[in-house]
Amino acid sequence: MLQRAIEPEDRDRIAAGRPRAKQPRKHQGEATDYHYAATVRDIAGLEAPGRAHFDNDAFSLHAGHAYRLPVKGEAQVRLLAPVIDYVGLNGYSIGERAVPVALDAEIQKYHSVRIGGGADLRRTWTAADSRSTTSAHARLLYQREVGDEAVTGVANFAGEPELPFDIRSQAAGKDILSVDLGVTMKRSSGIGLSVAYSGELSEGGMRHAAFLGVGYSF
User: Fold this and answer.
1) 3 state DSSP class of 41
2) φ, ψ dihedrals at 33, nearest 5°
3) pTM
């Protein structure tokens, strides 16, 4: 592998984003002189982290319909169909500033539309002394992605605008299975404790989230 040295004057040129002037090759007889060795550490400031600036707006919408099934006891069973979730992002620009190798990018608009259905189960228990109640819920939901699977865009280094390259986020996947579980305990004194879990499985991977909350009712 051939390595070319980064001369002191070239370091300033690269940091400023200026192209290199063409120069004739140096020869030693019939062989071109490639007696050079250097690394990116020779460019001052290249290892420093860059900071990008951008502004964007996001929109989300959730709509669904539930059918309550007649069951005995205090449990509530509902069929959820259809369930529609929409997330939209406007296109925006990303630009790094005050770094030796600044990166510019144009992100395209993103529209995610999920349509599906599932089931919801809820149950409440009241203590014998009526001083506390415990509520539990579970929801299983399947949805199909009919919009954009990933965020896409085009980027280039500020010093090389004629060499753009495509960028793409991780795909969310076409089929999504969501699970929500939770338990809430309330005392007659007004103190409440909630524990919840939310998970999502798709071709794009798995996502997990946990929630713990303490509340007081006046």
Assistant:
1) helix
2) -80, 115
3) 0.65
Report the candidate in 168, 180, 181, 172 with the shortest Cα–Cα distance to residue 202. 172
Minimal CA–CA distance to 88: which of 104, 111, 70?
Answer: 111
CB count within 10 Å of CB 13 equals 16
Neighbours of 7 (CB within 10 A): 12
What are φ and ψ of residue 202, in 5° steps?
Answer: -155, 180
Tell me: cis bond preceding 70? Omega within 30 of 0 counts. no
DSSP codes of every residue in 132-143: EEEEEEEEEEEE
Q: 158 with 103: CB under 8 angstroms?
A: yes
The whole-angstrom separation of Cα 161 and Cα 105 is: 11
Cα–Cα–Cα angle for 107, 110, 112, rounded to 5 degrees: 155
pLDDT digits (tens, 9 = 90+) for 39-51: 444 445 455 566 6
- Rounded to whole angstroms, the Cα distance separating 190 from 34 reads 79
Residue 214, CB-side half-sphere exposure with 13 Å CA sphere: 1
How do residues 153-172 score in pLDDT, each as one tens digit? 998 887 778 888 898 888 77
Q: How far apart are CA 14 and CA 11, in angstroms?
A: 5
Q: Which residue, among 54, 55, 57, has the nearest Cα to 97 in the 3D structure?
A: 54
Phi, psi of 99 (to 5 degrees): -130, 150
